[in-house]
Fold this protein.
Amino acid sequence: MTNETAAVPSGRPLDSLPPAARDGIAGTDWAGLPHRCTGRHNVPDTPDILIGVLDADPGRRVRAVGDLYRLLLDGERVFPATAPAALVVAALLDDPRTLVEDRWDRRAGRRPLRAELLNWLASFADTARLEEADGAGTARDLAAARAVRPSLHGLVARYCEADDVRVREAALAATALLTEDPTLVSCARRHAPAVRDVLATSADSYHRWIARSRLAAWGEDITGLVTAEEERRAALDRAHASADDPWAEDSEQAARFLAEQPEDTAALEPPGRRLSRRTTPAPTAAARPRSPHGPPAPSPSPHRPPPEPPVAVPGSAPGHRGAWRIARSEERAEWTFTPYIGVGPLHFGMALEEITGVLGAGPTVSSYTHEDGERRLVHADFPTTGIRCLFRGDRLGCVAVDALTGPQVRLGAVPLTGCAPSRVEAWLVHRTTTPDSLRYSPAGDPVLADLGLAIRTQRAGDLVLTRPLFLLHDWLDLWHSLPAREWHHF
């Protein structure tokens, strides 16, 4: 931290924060400490994010927590702003406002804000154990992240005996990971019993993995834990196979078994990362656990030239008013997108009112459903702009761009809207950088997890053009995420 004073974010007074958090924000030169997308259009700066965590508006609160992951800890990577932000997050834990419960972007179910902030600190501590070669950040940023671990430990460990099991588990996870700091080795034995009794039996698979890896690093016998994890996974695999087979004799019994299992509340893997079941035995104490991700994808063969970039289909002639009219290039707005942050002027996590304000017009069609007795927005169409916004928990999670009239969204300088589908797919697949990033929906739509991008198609008379979908990570399963109205859009 420096002695320079940061500007107070407009309309978001620091006075409402706990003193330690207030001093942490005001005493840091954030201008010299960028996060992933500092300075980009409609992306909040770090002080705005930290103050927003305790905002009175639930939507802004949830979005601020999502921004902690997307902008300050994206893809298991730290940035210059991450370490000082972690100290401020830890200073917020004592505030009574962190007892409020909500659904947060990264995990299933409801939990207190305090638990989710502790989960973020656990993710921070996990990333701080990685190396520059793992893509976890520059050597300087990783050193800064490791340097704050002792201070964080003192603020986090006090919640390891919290009455709320969700807070207790998150605190144990963060504390166990923070003890990798050399100055905290002596604390490990003190936490080992609780890690084994509480964390290793959690319904959260990530918490169980943390327990196994840290206990092994501390020299504890984890044979029973590894066996239990393997048996758990085998039982679930057998049940899923039987439940999906209508001819299986135990199909109904398997379906009941699955319905009775507690929901795995582990956070989704960061964008573009290889999924892992984390069922293999953790390394011994002599070998520090590494993040269980596969190697980078092999480079394309130098003998095969990359495909030509896609070209947008020319627009309809002036004056054309038919059902299949394609907007000309000069009629389309020019948008860019930042994976998992937003597209054009839209930022994932926005409420409908904020979107309406940014676009300058309201939706012509809106669809609602009822969840847990509450009325929830499903999607809203903005035909003037040429987009459809899809929501979960009344917050923006997906943007579908109309192939005929929507804005031209570019990846770099390359267009994605209103192009030949095969050209877009070939160009994107060639640029896939992580294993298992490319998948296909049951409808044959390519989905790229490292970009948060899916390419659907839309008819224009005898033509079929690209209708790009920009998504958050928990929308990548298109078949289950998209509402029927989107599937019916041709």
Q: What stands out?
A: The longest strand covers residues 374-382. Residues 192 and 215 are 7 Å apart (CA to CA). The longest helix spans residues 223-243.
